[in-house]
Design brief:
transcription regulation, alpha/beta, DNA-binding, DNA-binding transcription factor activity, HTH_LacI, 6-stranded mixed β-sheet, transcription, Rossmann fold
Length: 330
């Protein structure tokens, strides 16, 4: 038996095709009894809308584009799970691309998604450049975009982030309260919003306890493994820090591995801004500041879909800030 259509339902129930269509869309001008009759019959016959026909009729693909720097990153994989969860619940599919920290690839990804006629875009910016002029033409044409985690400075954009300042402040304060004063910060490129906010939180905690900020203890790294190793090795040899704070998800594991390679000390505490699921298994301990990645993905998708479905009329641009969870071991 082939797939049942709206025409088949209309014939079986002896009503018009337009009535069936409006009943399935929960239109206000169809009475409750007719809606119930149509919905129950559709469910009984396992009716499924034709996505191609719907996209042609509504001028929508019912798909969302997602661009992240790297899917293998624990934070981004969890965020994508949240995005897909909400998208599926609301009848949308998700198309995922990786920028691999390249703005050139990010631009190519956006162009490809736009050509595929996705209904909107969720994006976490690459680390190579904070310039978002390549997105201006889409924004000016009211193409729905929501930024998450790594966001632009412009106020006229929807954004979903965590409180990076507070998370970094509490991590640094924790180390200070452990008696540490020479705290090394290894952080992502300075072009990123998360870098600026987490560095500010680190410095603010030092200032609160009247500890001088030593710029030589702050190292900016790309996400290449060898850069993290070089930073750790240089700090251990030249500065002798008494604690390490790794300020991004991917850097945390690279730095941890380098620390184990170049130091046999177990009295130096390590803190990572990371959602790494196996942190509790590591020895020496890796204390973590955990982001609510799943909730970030969910909220980003909810805002984007509300924009697409015109459920945010009269509302301005929204910035949602979520808290972090401090997971400190001994």
């Amino acid at each position: 038996m082939g797939s049942i259509t709206i025409k088949d339902i209309a014939k079986a129930l002896n009503i018009s095709i337009s009535t069936v269509s409006r009943a399935l869309r929960d239109s206000y001008d169809i009475n409750a009894q007719t809606k119930q009759m149509v919905v129950e019959y559709a469910e009984k016959m396992n009716y499924r809308p034709n996505p191609i026909a719907l996209s042609l009729k509504e001028n929508k693909s019912r798909s969302l584009g997602v661009i992240v720097p790297e899917i293998a990153n624990t934070f981004f994989s969890q965020a994508i799970n949240g995005i897909e969860e909400v998208a599926y619940e609301r009848g949308y599919h998700v198309v995922i691309f990786q920028s691999h920290e390249s703005q050139e690839r990010e631009i190519s990804n956006i162009q490809h998604l736009f050509a595929r006629k996705v209904d909107g875009l969720l994006i976490s910016l690459s680390g190579s450049n904070k310039d978002i002029s390549h997105l201006d033409e889409y924004r000016k044409n009211n193409f729905p975009i929501v930024y998450f985690d790594r966001v632009p400075e412009t106020p006229d954009a929807h954004k979903v982030v965590v409180d990076n300042f507070e998370g970094a402040f509490k991590a640094t304060e924790y180390l200070i309260q452990k008696g540490k004063k020479d705290i090394a910060l290894i952080i992502s490129p300075p072009t990123l919003s998360i870098t600026q906010e987490r560095t500010a939180g680190y410095k603010s905690a030092l200032e609160k306890y009247n500890i001088p900020v030593r710029e030589e203890l702050i190292r900016h790294c790309s996400f290449q493994k060898d850069e993290a190793e070089q930073a750790i090795k240089a700090l251990l040899e030249e500065q002798e820090p008494d604690a390490f704070f790794m300020g991004s998800d991917r850097l945390a594991l690279n730095c941890y591995e380098a620390f184990k390679k170049w130091s046999n000390r177990r009295d130096i505490p390590l803190v990572g801004f990371t959602n790494l699921g196996i942190a509790h298994l590591l020895e020496p301990h890796l204390n973590t500041i955990v982001q609510p990645a799943l909730d970030i993905g969910r909220k980003s998708a909810e805002i984007l879909l509300d924009v697409i479905e015109n459920k945010r009329r009269g509302k301005g641009f929204e910035k949602v800030t979520l808290g972090t969870e401090l997971n400190f071991r001994s």
